[in-house]
Amino acid sequence: MDYDVIVVGAGLAGLVATVEIADAGKKVLLLDQEPEASLGGQAWWSFGGLFLVNSPEQRRLGIKDSLELAWQDWQGSAGFDRVDDEDYWGRKWAQAYVEFAAGEKREWLRSQGIRFFPVVGWAERGGQLADGHGNSVPRFHIVWGTGPGIVAPFEQRLRAHMVTGMVQYKPRHRVNELLQVGGAIVGVSGDVLAPSTAARGEASSRDAVGEFVYSAQAVVVSSGGIGANHALVRQYWPSRLGTPPAKMLSGVPAHVDGRMLAIAEQAGGRIVNRDRMWHYTEGIENWNPVWERHGIRILPGPSSLWLDARGQRFTAPNFPGFDTLSTLEAIQKTGYNYSWFILTQKIIEKEFALSGSEQNPDLTGKSIRQVLSRALPGAMAPVQAFMDKGKDFVVASTLAELVKGMNAITEEKLLDLAQIERQIQARDREIENKFTKDAQITAIRGARNYVGDKLIRVAKPHRLLDPASGPLIAVRLNIVSRKTLGGLQTDLSGRVLNQAGEVVPGLYAAGEASGFGGGGLHGYRALEGTFLGGCLFTGRVAGRAVAKELQSR
Ligand SMILES: Cc1cc2nc3c(=O)[nH]c(=O)nc-3n(C[C@H](O)[C@H](O)[C@H](O)COP(=O)(O)OP(=O)(O)OC[C@H]3O[C@@H](n4cnc5c(N)ncnc54)[C@H](O)[C@@H]3O)c2cc1C
What pLDDT shows up at residue 553? Predict the structure, then answer.
């Protein structure tokens, strides 16, 4: 055997698995189709939000969280309804993961130098009943340094193992096949791709300049999901979400191509929950794209008015930041692939954040001075850049001008000023009293009882048509593809199972390729910050398990 273990994919899950295996004294070959510039995969681009339960950061902000509450929220969000089959292992992984997030996760990361921004974010607020979807409390912990900050300690460990020879890392190696002897996976073969100068995240060529075959006692597949492969996204799009969007932006680099999943399937692995995906509804086209159709997700506070393509306001729970899947369903059922936010300057200054490490230079660069400047008047610089240069933004001092501008950036010109004005005036009248029947305004006021929201995330309720809060802003929101919730079904050791539910000997999976654990630990919906965490957890579990199995042979 050339190596003890081969890991396919040098994203976060692959990095974690590799260093855990090498720590246990086993020799690893780490392969990736991309050049070294893209080491770390999607995680480098991520906002670095991590789901933690009952953390010191939460407690300092007066948040009362517990394992029981988190598990209640997880189950209400997941809606596991295939527990005897496709959800069997995913549900078990979910339970183990929530325990990890309430237990060892924070200290394990801190021991590697990872620190957290002190204000905990409240993602996916739900908007229905207590035992339904959503986080009952804020749990989105932003890593100080965002995505690069979470990749860094694992990259450091990787490079240390490369120096001692425990790990060989070969970029530009694209796996085409998992090799089998007597039903057991014993290696990989593939193409050596031409050297590439593509910068991080940019598409690299697929020109082959050679071939390779490597053998090992086990292979870990950590090749990510299908988010950049829109043909696959459309193929598995569930009918419950209406017709697949004709137009979509890409929230992930081109390497998230889903190709390795089919290769693992050919080798006997079972893929489950293909119809579960996590795409965002608040996508804007990047004016400065790194990859094709590059979409950026707005992480919205709760105050923008959300209208469908025809200018009709969405009803509860489809408010900004409440229920991604429900909103996606509502949008798709309109027959159009976009929707609108209408908001004010006051709202954009306090409530608009953009997902992605490069969109948050203050947090990514760990600059306290720049982070504090978020509190100063004016939108954050990356948001202002979109207002100035992004094709999805309209800024106007009157509603008439705004609606005219909105109609001008769509082909259909579906919006009627009188109809939009009537809805905004009705909403604005509800601001006059301290109580209201408008569920969104109730939610905004409720959110401001959380100090973190009041400080930096939720604008004081005000009339949208009050010129003192202006100018008015409209944003066209596109669907942006991102996460794959289903994947290779794995047991609690990360071993890939076949159609009969038996272990495929020698084959492990981790990260998004395994549906973040078990072939889908999220079920239908995510509580956010659970993807990076799922990669950390599954990479750690699979890495330790494969090393243990080899030691016992
Ligand atoms: C902009 C952005 C923001 C995000 N923000 C957050 C956040 O705040 N919180 C959160 O929890 N999650 C977030 N995520 C999601 C999270 O980053 C990803 O789900 C996670 O990083 C996936 O990691 P992975 O290791 O499973 O896969 P990937 O990072 O996709 O890595 C897979 C690797 O496998 C390689 N590969 C694939 N096929 C082959 C093959 N056949 N041969 C060789 N190599 C192959 C690819 O080139 C790639 O390098 C975000 C993602 C993005 C893009």
Answer: 85
The rounded distance, in Å, linking the Cα atoms of 41 and 201 is 8
Q: What distances in angstroms separate CA 23 from CA 166, 221, 410, one per listed residue?
A: 9, 19, 55
Check if the beta carbon of residue 193 is closer than 8 Å to that of residue 205: yes
Query: Which ligand 1 atom minimizes the distance to the CA of 256?
Result: 30
Q: Quick one: 351 exposed, middle or buried, by C-beta within 10 A (0-12, 13-18, 19+)?
A: buried
**Does ligand 1 lie within 6 Å of residue 86's CB atom?**
no
Distance CA 153, CA 40 (A): 11
Closest C-alpha residue for ligand 1 atom 52: 46
For the 3-223+258-276+485-552 domain, the top CATH level (class) is: alpha beta
Question: Average pLDDT by consecutive 10-residue portion of the chain (553 residues)?
Answer: 97 98 98 98 98 98 98 98 98 98 98 97 95 98 98 98 98 98 97 98 98 98 98 97 95 98 98 98 98 97 98 97 97 96 97 94 93 86 95 97 97 95 98 96 97 95 97 98 98 98 98 98 98 98 98 90
CA angle, 247 then 250 then 253, to 5°: 155
- Alpha-carbon distance of 484 to 512, in angstroms, equals 7
Contact status, residue 28 vs residue 49, Cβ threshold 8 Å = no
Residue among 221, 531, 538 to mutate when testing ligand 1 (max atoms within 8 A of CB): 531
Domain edges within the chain: 3-223+258-276+485-552, 279-480
Residue type, 350: K
**Is the Cβ–Cβ distance between 265 and 253 less than 8 Å?**
no
